[in-house]
Amino acid sequence: MILLIKLLLAHIIGDFFLQPEKWVKEKEQKKLKSNKLYLHVLIHIIITGIVLWDTSLWPIVVTIGTTHFIIDAAKLLIQKKETNRVLFFIDQLLHVTVIFLSYYLFTENKLDLNILVTENNLLLLVCLLFLTIPTSIIMKTIFLKWNISELTKNNESLEDAGKYIGILERILVFIFIIAGHWEAVGFLITAKSVFRFGDLKESKHRQLTEYILIGTLISFGIAILTGIAYMYVNLNLYA
Question: Taking the CA of residue 147 as centre, how many other CA atoms within 13 Å lie in the half-sphere pointing to its CB?
Answer without folding.
Answer: 3
